Amino acid sequence: MGSIAKLSRNSFPDVFVFGSSSSAYQFEGETNKSGKGPNIWDTFIEEHPERISDHSNAKAAVDFYHRYKEDVQRMKGMGMDAFRFSISWSRVLPHGRLSAGINEEGIQFYNNLIDELIKNGMITLNEPFMFSVNGYDTGTMAPGRVSTLENYPGQPKISGATEVYTVTHHLLLAHATAVKLYKEKYQTCQGGKIGITLVSHWFEPYSTSESDYPQNMHDYVGERLPKFSEEESKMLRGSYDFIGVNYYTTYYAQNVEDANYKTIGFMEDARVTWPGERNGIPIGPQAGSSWLYICPEGIRHLLNYIKDAYENPTIYITENGVDDVNSSSLEEALNDHVREQYYKDIFDNVLESINDHGVDVKGFFAWSFLDDFEWGYGYSSRFGLYFIDYKDDLKRYAKNSSTAMGSVDDFSRYSFPDDFVFGTSSSAYQYEGETNKHGRGPAIWDTFTEEHAERINDHSNGNVAVDFYHRYKEDVQRMKEMGMDAFRFSISWSRVLPRKFSSS
């Protein structure tokens, strides 16, 4: 992001990476094609369309599945160093288990995407909290399970609010197991790094009163909190080469007295609320989404805290961005001055953490390279550096903010360390599309959007998304044009292992 006044990549460490981010379901599309199996979001949207604000889905998304090549070129043109993407495992393992067989078409798609990124001089490298709490406590995301009936009356209630902790427990074990496997079998020959990405807001105290400091959450959860064995704890400890941080916003933290809780769930166990206002005054300007307040200084506080609390681990900012509501004209959407200023302020704060506090930040990935399927908000929220015309064949248009990583007129990458990586991010369901084609099996989001279309703001789904499945080559070229160094993506495992069982 290169045209931001007074900033230069020289201001950042030599090893700093600038990039953008994506997620498979939000980008790819092709949710039920190309051998992909259904995932929890396919099911969630189908069953609860009312939980998506615009009742949309990601069956097409932004068609990254077909347009990835041109999109990679766009990233390159933006000057991105990297692209953080996710793999749709229902595209790779469409039946959910390795024994049930892999989807060769899904594997080939990700091989093609990685080849396209490497060919364009990029490196290829997510949020257990969002998956566990929103999927198994509040029910706002796939698979839509709830701890209480408060949010969605009439939905099945989870007895004792245990699933959110059980899921988190196994996510951590899966992470540690993957790290152990990679370090033992692949790291020496591949020279790669492995870590975990955690989403974290920054919190300011609502008041200075000691009574606002909550009792240890463990005391409230008790036996519902799974225990790790000594061997599991040893495997988990230090199971990362880097920490990925997804930062979007800041809230106040306010204690809530026990007497006010008549139900149990994750937030009830925490005995805390996260208000975005104090005495009627917002903590920052509100962005397009109701949950997102613009607080760039929060990223500095968060980075400094991580350094001080966790012995200065290597950090990559794997997601960061700001959205607008999908109601502007094309001209207005492309002149995204709020986003341009936001990234300037973010980079100012990241540089301050690096230079003044000694935080070991190695890279930045913008969320997102393209407008995409934004989970419960469907397509009504736009985070992209590129505008997607959902009414005209998912055409891509560069927003003003897309030039920020490519131009060096005022903002130079030399402000950052030499090894800093700039990139963008994605996730398989949000980008790919082709959810029920090309051998992909169903994933939880396929099921969720089918069963709960009402939980998506615009009743949409990721069946097409942004068609990254077909357009990945052109999208990789776009990243290249943006000057991206890297692209963070995810793998749809239901595309690779469509039938859940590894033996088939």
From TrEMBL:
Q: Which Pfam families match?
A: Glyco_hydro_1
* Signal peptide positions on this chain: none
Which superkingdom? Answer: Eukaryota
From the broadest rank down, the organism's phylogenetic lineage runs: Eukaryota, Viridiplantae, Streptophyta, Embryophyta, Tracheophyta
Q: Which GO terms describe its biological process?
A: carbohydrate metabolic process
Similarity section: Belongs to the glycosyl hydrolase 1 family.
- Identify this protein by name: Beta-glucosidase
SUPFAM superfamilies, A to Z: (Trans)glycosidases
- Matching InterPro entries, A to Z? GH, Glyco_hydro_1
Give the residue spans that cross the bilayer: none
Regions annotated as coiled coil: none
User: Which GO molecular-function terms appear in the entry?
Assistant: beta-glucosidase activity
